[in-house]
Amino acid sequence: MTIAADLVTTLSGTFSGKFYALVAPATVVAPYAVYQMVSAVPITHLSGQSDRTNYRFQVDCFGREKIALDALATATRLAMDGSSLFKSVCINSMELFEDPAMYFRITMDFSIWQ
Q1: Which CATH architecture has domain 3-113?
Q2: Which of 82, 89, 90, 109 gives the lowest tally of CB atoms within 10 Å of its CB?
Q3: Coil, helix or strand for 105?
């Protein structure tokens, strides 16, 4: 499997299947989340490249209610921490408000080793 497939396997249940690559369908109803790979850095040694890569993924959670979205973000972090498919750490998190859509948004950056 790919790292993206492993990420979807890890988080799809957290979002009741509403977990999309890059952009959500126009008809999706919040809460939902989108993800994107920000970087993939292969680990190299003087003797060559290893089989390990450090990925950075951004997960954006969207919702209409702030408290419910906070709980969803916490569930996301717990699912990532408990994944048996990779090791990860949340390296950044921020809250935003999408004014035209009237959605709260929590953005989390994860460093993932696989």
Answers
A1: 2-Layer Sandwich (3.30)
A2: 82
A3: strand
Q: What are phi and psi of 106, to 5 degrees?
A: -120, 120
Tell the burial category of 56 from Cβ atoms under 10 Å away from its Cβ (0-12, 13-18, 19+). middle
CA atoms within 13 A on the CB side of 69: 23
Provide the whole-model pTM: 0.91
Structure confidence by residue, pLDDT tens digits, 67-101: 999 999 999 999 999 999 999 999 999 999 988 88
Extents of the domains making up the chain: 3-113
Contact 110, 91 (CB under 8 A): yes
The answer to whether residue 47 scores a pLDDT higher than 80 is no
